[in-house]
Design a protein that fits this description.
Layout lengths: L7 E6 L4 H13 L7 E5 L2 H13 L8 E3 L5 H8 L2 E6 L4 H4 L1 H10 L2 E4 L4 H17 L3 E3 L7 H18 L5 E10 L4 H16 L1 H8 L22 E2 L6 E4 L3 H14 L9 E7 L3 H23 L1 H11 L9 H5 L2 E12 L2 E11 L3 H19 L9 E3 L1 H4 L3 H8 L3 E6 L1
Parallel strand pairs: 1-2, 1-4, 2-3, 4-5, 5-6, 6-13, 7-10
Antiparallel strand pairs: 7-11, 8-9, 9-10, 11-12, 12-14
Helix pairs in contact: 1-14, 3-5, 5-6, 6-9, 8-9, 8-12, 14-16
C-alpha cells in the first residue's frame, strides 16, 4: 500500500487497553501530527473518543481520529486494516483475538506488529500464513515488546558487530536478564494462562513448548540446542551462577527462527541460552536456586487446570489493568548478550546491551512496539525478506536499534 491510498499511517489497535494507551501516548507525543497520522482503534467508541481528547491535550495533535471495530468481527477488521499502512496491536490473548487481524492485514497488504509471547499461536500463524504473507509482501512481525526485542535484536546487533570486526559470527551466545524492575498487567498474565491452557488440550501447542526449534520453518525444526536451562548452573563465560529465565521459552525460539529466516548467517550449529545471572560463590548459588525453585513452583501451578483457573479468577489482575504510574516511572531493565566465536587468529568474545530507565513490560514495551511500527512504516529495515511471519531481527533488523536509541534506550555493541 502507498500513503496515497491509506487514510492513516498507523492504527494502534486496542488503544484503550493498558498497553495500547501507552503506545498511543508514545506515538502522539513523540511525533508531530504533520509527520505521522495515528488513529486509535478499538470496539468502544466512547472510550476511544475520551482517550483521543486526553491525548490531544498532551500533544500538538489537533484531532486524533478513531477507528471502531471488533476483534471478533472479521469484516470490521478488514475495513480497519484497509485504512492504514501499519497496525500496531496490543489486543490479547492473541490466541483468542489475534488470528482474524493477521488475516485482515495480509488481505489488505498492511504491515503488522504485536506484543505476543504466545508461542503456540505464533507457531499456528507460521504454519497457516507464512507463505501467504510472503506472496503478498506483507510483514507480520510478532513479539515486538520486552518479549522479544531485547534478546532477539540484541543477538542480531552482536552478530553484526562480530562479522564486521572479526569476519565471522559467534557460534554461541548467552542472554542475561541482568537487571529489571517493573509491574505486570492483567493482559500479560492472561496471555501466559492461555499458553498453558492451550498446552493442556492441544498436542501441537505441547510440541511447540517441548521442541526448542518449534518456530523454525517446517522441515527445519531440529538442531543442536537442547532447550532452555532448568536448574542453577555455573556460567562458562562469566564464572558466576545463573538461574533459569522465565522468558527463555519464548525468546530462545524467536532467536532460532531469526537465524533460520535469515538463511543461517550464524550457522546451523548456532546455540543460544537465556538466563538470570546472580553472583559467584555460595550466595550466588543460593540465589540461583531460589529463583529456579520459584519458577518451578509457578510453572507447576500454571500447569494445573484447577490452580490456573483459580489464579485467573482470584489472583491475577483484570486484563486492561497494569502497574501504577509510580511503578512504571521507577522501572528499569538491562539485557546483555555475550557471544563467543572463533577465527583463524583465535577465539573472540563480544557483547551487546539493550536497556532503559523505563518499566520493561509497559513503558519500554510501548516504545519498542511503536518504534517497530515506525520502522515498518518508513521502510527502515535491513532484511532480505519482503513478507512473511517474521521476528524483530529478521523482519526489521539493526535499524530498530537506531530508533530505540533516539527514544531513550541504551543500545550498544562491542568487545567484551
Amino acid at each position: 500500500m502507498s500513503s496515497t491510498t491509506s487514510k492513516y499511517d498507523i492504527v494502534v489497535w486496542g488503544a484503550t487497553g493498558f498497553a495500547g494507551r501507552l503506545v498511543a501516548e508514545h506515538l502522539t507525543s513523540h511525533y508531530p501530527a504533520a509527520e505521522l497520522s495515528v488513529a486509535l482503534g478499538g470496539r468502544n467508541k466512547s472510550k476511544l473518543r475520551r482517550l483521543a481528547a486526553e491525548l490531544t491535550g498532551e500533544s500538538d495533535q489537533a484531532e486524533i481520529p478513531i477507528v471502531v471495530g471488533d476483534a471478533t468481527d472479521p469484516a470490521s477488521l478488514r475495513e480497519m486494516a484497509a485504512q492504514t499502512e501499519v497496525v500496531c496491536t496490543t489486543v490479547g490473548p492473541y490466541t483468542t483475538y489475534g488470528t482474524a487481524l493477521v488475516e485482515a492485514c495480509i488481505e489488505a497488504g498492511t504491515e503488522y506488529c504485536d506484543l505476543t509471547g504466545e508461542i503456540n499461536w505464533v507457531r499456528e500463524m507460521i504454519d497457516r500464513y507464512h507463505d501467504e504473507a510472503m506472496a503478498a509482501d506483507v510483514k507480520i512481525v510478532h513479539s515486538c515488546g520486552f518479549d522479544s526485542i531485547p534478546a532477539d535484536l540484541g543477538v542480531k546487533l552482536l552478530q553484526s558487530y562480530a562479522v564486521e570486526e572479526f569476519g565471522d559470527p559467534c557460534e554461541f551466545v548467552q542472554i542475561y536478564l541482568e537487571d529489571g524492575e517493573g509491574g505486570v498487567s492483567g493482559g500479560t498474565l492472561a496471555s501466559a494462562a492461555e499458553l498453558f491452557e492451550a498446552a493442556a488440550t492441544d498436542p501441537i501447542a505441547r510440541e511447540t513448548l517441548s521442541n526448542p526449534y518449534s518456530l523454525a520453518p517446517p522441515g527445519e525444526r531440529h538442531g543442536v540446542d537442547t532447550g532452555e536451562q532448568r536448574r542453577p548452573q555455573r556460567d562458562s563465560i562469566r564464572s558466576i551462577w545463573t538461574a533459569p529465565s522465565p522468558m527463555a521459552a519464548v525468546n530462545e525460539r524467536v532467536i532460532r527462527r531469526s537465524n533460520a529466516l535469515l538463511a543461517y548467517p550464524w550457522g546451523r550449529e548456532f546455540r543460544c541460552t537465556e538466563v538470570i545471572p546472580t553472583s559467584a560463590g555460595i550466595s550466588g548459588a543460593a540465589a540461583a536456586g531460589g529463583i529456579a525453585l520459584g519458577l518451578g513452583v509457578g510453572t507447576a501451578a500454571m500447569k494445573s487446570r484447577l490452580l490456573r483457573r483459580g489464579l485467573r479468577r482470584f489472583v491475577f489482575p483484570e486484563p486492561g489493568t497494569g502497574p501504577s504510574k509510580a511503578e512504571m516511572e521507577s522501572g528499569h531493565f538491562s539485557v546483555r548478550v555475550i557471544g563467543r566465536g572463533t577465527t583463524t587468529d583465535g577465539p573472540f568474545t563480544v557483547t551487546s546491551e539493550i536497556g532503559a530507565e523505563l518499566d520493561p513490560g509497559y513503558g519500554a514495551t510501548a516504545r519498542m512496539l511503536g518504534e517497530a511500527g515506525m520502522c515498518l512504516l518508513r521502510g527502515e529495515t535491513e532484511s532480505p525478506l519482503d513478507g512473511g511471519i517474521l521476528t524483530p531481527a529478521s523482519g526489521i533488523g539493526d535499524p530498530l536499534g537506531d530508533r530505540l536509541r533516539d527514544v531513550g534506550f541504551a543500545v550498544t555493541a562491542g568487545e567484551w
